[in-house]
Amino acid sequence: MDLQQLLRVLRVRWKFILATLVVGSVLSAAFALSRTPSYESTGRIFIVAPNGSAGDAFPTLLVTQRASSYADLAKDPALLQKVLNRLQEPIPLSELASRVSVSVVVDTQIVQITASGATPEEAKDIADAMVTQTLAMVTELERPTDNKPPAVVGRAVGEPTLESSPVGPPMILYPVSYT
């Protein structure tokens, strides 16, 4: 196809091309404006061996392994149900599971819990409930059967963050203000 043929097609089909562009633009704008913003909040739990010194290899290895285990267990449906009970929100369990991520910060003993919500306050409330329930789980699982102290303990590191700017949908693609 050469330039003359292309111009002839454009001249004959200009109404269809224009209608397609207008309909596509309207649908794209409607989709972008219908998306609700998403906010995130992050809470942290520090896992530590209360009786070991910082230079001991065994307590460090133990704490690292336990931190990974607790990050894994924090997504357990029983714990998530306790979070829902604490929140008293009508959120389905599967939706809560998809709105929470739990990981261990690389080369640390810190379990990081990130929650998303429709408002900054909702995200913070979910993260706070997750931190509280995860700490309760750590305390329960590490409770010794005899009079010995627990092998590891968990401590909340500050309050979960309260971010006022949304993390989604991507603002570069949708330059719309949500405030």
Morphology: elongated
- Order of helix and strand elements from N to C terminus: HHEHHHEEHE
Unreliable runs, pLDDT <50, ≥5 residues?
none
Radius of gyration over all CA atoms, rounded: 25 Å
- Could you describe the largest sheet, including whether it forms a barrel? 4 strands, antiparallel
Structural class determined from secondary elements? alpha+beta
Strand order of the largest sheet: 2-3-1-4
What is the number of beta strands? 4
Strand percentage? 15-25%
Into which percent range does the helicity of residues fall? Answer: 40-55%
CA distance, first residue to last residue: 50 Å
Number of helices: 6
**What value does the average pLDDT take?**
85
Written description of the protein model:
- There is one protein chain.
- This protein has 179 residues and is an alpha+beta fold.
- Helix content is 49%, strand content 15%.
- The protein has helices at residues 3-12, 14-34, 57-73, 77-87, 93-99, 120-141, and strands at 39-48, 100-104, 110-117, 153-156.
- A 4-stranded antiparallel β-sheet has the order 2-3-1-4.
- A hairpin with a 5-residue loop joins strand 2 and strand 3.
- Helix 4 crosses helix 6.
- The longest helix is centred in the last third of the chain and has 22 residues, at 120-141.
- It is elongated.
Write the topology of this structure:
Layout: H1 3-12, H2 14-34, E1 39-48, H3 57-73, H4 77-87, H5 93-99, E2 100-104, E3 110-117, H6 120-141, E4 153-156
Antiparallel strand pairs: 1-3, 1-4, 2-3
